[in-house]
Amino acid sequence: MSALRIVWVYPDLLSTYGDRGNLLILSRRAAMRGLPVECFEVRSDQPVPVDADIYLLGGGEDGPQSLAAQRLIADGGLRRAVDRRAVVLAICAGYQLLGQSFFAKGQPCAGLGLLDLTSDRGPSRAVGELAGTVDPELGLPMLSGFENHGGRTHLGPSARPLAKVSVGIGNDGATEGAWNGSIVGTYSHGPALSRNPGLADLLLRWATGIDNLPPLDDAWPERLRGERLAAVRAA
Ligand code: GLN
Questions:
Q1: How does it assemble (predicted)?
Q2: How far is the CA of 157 from the centre of ligand 1 (A)?
Q3: Which pLDDT score is estimated for 94?
């Protein structure tokens, strides 16, 4: 079997919140199922390979975020990978820059247009716990995370909300994140997959085509999810 190739896109620009965790979690969960994995870290002065299976984009401050968008547009590799239905997980700044446009440092910036959405600025920063009921089509439990962003995101008709918000702000206080095909974007921060192992396995299923991945012992992530949900309910 050929190795599952996972690319972490631009760790030098988009890695504000421990985003490497998503790479570690995906590769570990694949390896525990006996799947060979190759991980690549592609810096912003390198071309984005077109032939990988999963691409990860992390969060970032406004300056690095706008630079990342410019370089990704000029490079074109991520767009070509998406054209061949590669799987993408994009967090916060990485999520915003997959849309048509976003704001950084008060300026409108062009995004890659890989998701049908635009982002502008909200009245205040959204910081804190984030939880929501995931789109039933994805068959996942409650999304659990932590958010920290100034932007608000508005979905067009071809982007589906990832979740309906029950705690926090997400896109706009009503919906959180977006997905279309095999692209998922979320405001759930940093190593979002540590709190959402079901989402990690969904990405692995999409990337490998293996629908019956053997279950793993998720007692620890479940404990973390339970603890955080109990904390927000108590607040
Ligand atoms: N710069 C973007 C915003 O503030 C994204 C921030 C982030 O990735 N945390 O909305």
A1: Forms a heterodimer with MurT.
A2: 23
A3: 98
The answer, yes or no, to whether residue 59 has pLDDT greater than 90, is: yes
Substitution site in 22, 92, 119 for ligand 1 pocket (most atoms within 8 Å of beta carbon): 92
Ligand 1 center to 63 CA (angstroms): 10
Is-catalytic flag, 189? Answer: yes
Give residues with Cβ within 8 angstroms of 132, minimum separation 6.
142, 143, 162, 163, 164, 165, 166, 167, 168, 170, 175, 176
Q: Which neighbouring-strand residues pair with 202?
A: none
Query: pTM higher than 0.90 for the full model?
Result: yes
Q: Does residue 117 have a pLDDT over 80?
A: yes
Model confidence pLDDT, tens digit, residues 182-203: 999 999 997 899 999 999 999 9
For ligand 1, what atom is nearest to the CA of residue 189? 9
Beta strands in 37-98 (DSSP E): 37-42, 54-57, 87-91
Q: Specify the fold of 4-234.
A: Rossmann fold (3.40.50)
Ligand 1: which residue has its CA nearest to atom 6? 149
How far apart are the C-alpha atoms of 93 and 91, rounded to whole Å? Answer: 6
ipTM of the predicted structure?
A: 0.95
- Ligand 1: nearest atom to the Cα of 94: 8
Q: Which amino acid is at 55?
A: Y
